[in-house]
Amino acid sequence: MNYRELGNTGMKVSEVSFGTWAIGGSWGHTNDEDALKALDYAISQGVNFFDTADVYGDGHSEELLAKATKGKEDQIYIATKFCRQGNIHSPENYSYERVKAYCEDSLRRLGREAIDLYQIHCPATEILRDGQVFDVLDRLKQEGKVRNYGVSVETVEEGLICLEHPNVSSLQVIFNMFRQKPLEALFPQAASKQVGILVRLPLASGLLTGKYEKGHVFEEDDHRNFNENGEAFNVGETFAGLGFDKGVELSDQLKWIADGRPSMASAALRWIMDQPEVTCVIPGFRNERQIGQNLQAIDTHPFSQEELERIRSFYETDVKQFIRGPY
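The line above is the sequence of Aldo/keto reductase; the predicted structure tokens follow.
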């Protein structure tokens, strides 16, 4: 396992880390036994960073992480998120009292005294522009409840707003071969300010595994069923903003990236990890097998300059026009 500095936090985190949305809920059937085995396996392979949120299974993924990391709290870093239990547009939702309550609830579920990285969970843009929530996080940091804080954003514009605040240590962004806009301005500016980049949806909700065919039906409680067109939350969170059938069509055109590499998924993750501004990728998982598949990215050989140009051209000419929603 290789480790990278997360911005200016002093934390060295595994370049392949994991998100826990899928084991908490909204990705179809979940199994706690499988999830805990997978977490144990990831830790045994050197993974030392996990991303979660208070709304993943109404806190269930935080509780699973507490079980998996009990006795290893000083070795395993946990990032969690807040604000989506309330009205993300209401300033009251970001008051000191409300955020402190969210924080203490997460600490209780995690069984920890402080949160390594506390992230605002895709708040409304106007909240970021207002900026008072950053003062609240500074206060929680001074009190020792939070060691570092960052923001999970939906758009490049939101990320750039966050970079105006000096104590933001990380940005969590949607970034993959189907969604390359952060490369243009956000990543260079984040690097110049020593702000870490956590990449979510690195496989575009599974499209970049190459395993799906058009017409596939996901389980009723899977966001890939109920949020394909942004019915429940930002459309970019599902298939990177592409419609499913169009995404399958485009992923079929990218299957060449697996040539000479373990899999399409490992190749897609390798491409992200080779962006110098990226701290780590945080793919999801539901079982030990998926952990192992994603960890193959560590030993996947990088792309040649010719291949990189082919991927960039494909995005510009074939993909970008089909991405829906602001990004």
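Note on the example: The chain is about 35% helix and 10% strand. The chain has a mean pLDDT of 95.
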